[in-house]
Amino acid sequence: MDKGATPADARSFVVTNRSVLAIAVPMTLAYLTTPMLGLVDTAVVGQFGDAALLGGLAAGALIFDVVFTTFNFLRSGTTGLVAQAFGRGDELEEQAVFWRAVLIAVVAGIVLAALAPLVAVAGQKFMGAEPRVSEAMGVYIRIRLLAAPFSLINYAILGYVLGRGEGGLGLMLQLVLNGINIALCFLLGLKLGWGVAGVAWATVTGEFLAMLLGLAIVVRRFRAAPSLPRHRLLDMAAFLRMLSLNRDIMIRSFSLLAAFALFTRQGAQFGTVTLAANAVLMNFFLVAGYFLDGFATAAEQLAGRAVGAGAATPFRQAVRLTLFWGFGLAGAATLIFWLGGAGLVALVTTSLDVRAVADIYLPWAALTPLSGVLAFQMDGVFIGATWSRDMRNMMLLSFLVFSGALLTLAPTFGNHGLWAALHVFLLARGFSLLTILRLRVRTAFS
């Protein structure tokens, strides 16, 4: 298990291919378990051969992602702040950041779980899908939101681990979480025939057990470290900084999910079969995204550590090397999806109609790794450096560009136009952040 660097060498370090891969490889494997879970969920429900159930699962998962990814700041914000404290060699602040994140997670999680029925109704009204699709979506949301407190605490745990660059430990925690989830998904959803409800209960159980394991590991570590004074934990200035960072990341995440919500909603307007086909193909995009997220996570930790240490050279090395590896792997992912995507579509769903439509739009999904790699890597750099305001503003700009593309292309070219608008969105995110990066580097290290 990784232990990260020691306080003695926290301020002086060189970013190499090895240091990038030490974080990126285990976290790529870890993140890949999440879209694999999505593929399993879709495949389990897809075995019932009912496009309405498959569409309901996709719509429910989207609403869930809109809610939970909005709170992803508990992972990414914690990573950036812990990485900077690590770069300064400040062990007490690492602990303080973690417990502040857990406190926010507990409060927010309880509120979300209590609001599950309202979220389900709002989601059904927003999607405006067929009655059977809406029914399946409501069941999924009401059950899965019960895991909200556990899920958000797991975000905080993972954020702390990644902030210290402990990719091996992060991999182990994600394998436990998603391994339990996948096993129970087959048991409850398919073998016991619970369908969509079984998939949702599998998630609740997996999140709870992973939370217990993660807390046990972190608390045991803190017991061997210097004791955290209460006034350090409740430092109002540090709390306000964390809330400001989290606010910006939340707005960014909500804008991102709003774009995906519009994408799914527009797909629903093209019919249930097209909605289901897009859901299958979006799993490919998620696989690529989590694949690239391993290197974005390396950028978060290394860039944040460099900012904390005031080290410009390692910062530039982190940006250059994570982009190099990211583009290489994006090209490989595109090639794999292009050549093997049809077989994966057939594996995921037994519906011949869904397969036929998905095959038509497969090339669009296969190209998403290349159009999205710069956005993923720039997000990692800006999160680690805690330049959250810039990231928020560029995301809002990109969302406006996406909305314009959607309104222009989808009515004219149908589902082809919908996928083209998604690519425009990804490219706008990446190049807008790259444009502003040089200015931020000059001001941060001057």
From TrEMBL:
Coiled-coil blocks: none
GO cellular component, one term: plasma membrane
Annotated GO MF terms: antiporter activity; xenobiotic transmembrane transporter activity
Entry keywords, A to Z: Membrane, Transmembrane, Transmembrane helix
Annotated InterPro entries: DinF-like (IPR044644), MATE_fam (IPR002528)
Primary subcellular site in the record, as a coarse category: membrane
Name recorded for this polypeptide: MATE family efflux transporter
